């Protein structure tokens, strides 16, 4: 596969696009960028048109304006799809990207073909909320990499960290190089918007997959089940022995789950349109 070259939309969003077929958009987590999806781009691009982009305040995309909320992050994705002339896409959001994917599903339902939320948050407990608010305060005081060591310990297994020191160092560098204000604006949303329009989630009427890892301490299996219960017909999956960064640590496992879901979603779509295989 030819390595895609980053391009920009008129509004400045940096993105990669490769492959042919039904469009699939990948949204990274807070502090990361579109490069986290390398394993998924390789695994999905033979069957789908795969689009990965940098969220506002991350990578090569512009900083969000002061006070930007989740609707602004959803609007960024809508502008990207408009630029690419994509009328509908499957949206796959990881962690903070899962919140953006949910917001997009609520604000732009006509642009949504299917929805995948990976390792994301919903209905935090008081203890979980206090912990993420404390990390937000640390980031505000000390910068984007204030919690890097603790984050990496939550995100990856010890074995993976030991076997892939160069990759772990690169991710640590990505965290440290974030624009402080862009990172903080995004992290504050990540910390506070887990219940964003929760009562409206029942309006989502597309095939939906909610998944996390068995050992994801911040985006727990219980959160996954609760979120799936809010969306009609949503499937919930908990991958055994996986931590938060399972798309990076176990790309083949995650890709197989995604390909199974995407195939199922395509079958449902074709049935709805009266298409016989």
Automatic annotation (TrEMBL):
<protein>
    <submittedName>
        <fullName>3-oxoadipate enol-lactonase 2</fullName>
        <ecNumber>3.1.1.24</ecNumber>
    </submittedName>
</protein>
<dbReference type="InterPro" id="IPR000639">
    <property type="entry name" value="Epox_hydrolase-like"/>
</dbReference>
<dbReference type="InterPro" id="IPR029058">
    <property type="entry name" value="AB_hydrolase_fold"/>
</dbReference>
<dbReference type="Pfam" id="PF00561">
    <property type="entry name" value="Abhydrolase_1"/>
</dbReference>
<feature type="domain" description="AB hydrolase-1">
    <location>
        <begin position="23"/>
        <end position="250"/>
    </location>
</feature>
<dbReference type="InterPro" id="IPR000073">
    <property type="entry name" value="AB_hydrolase_1"/>
</dbReference>
<dbReference type="GO" id="GO:0047570">
    <property type="term" value="F:3-oxoadipate enol-lactonase activity"/>
</dbReference>
<keyword id="KW-0378">Hydrolase</keyword>
<dbReference type="InterPro" id="IPR050266">
    <property type="entry name" value="AB_hydrolase_sf"/>
</dbReference>
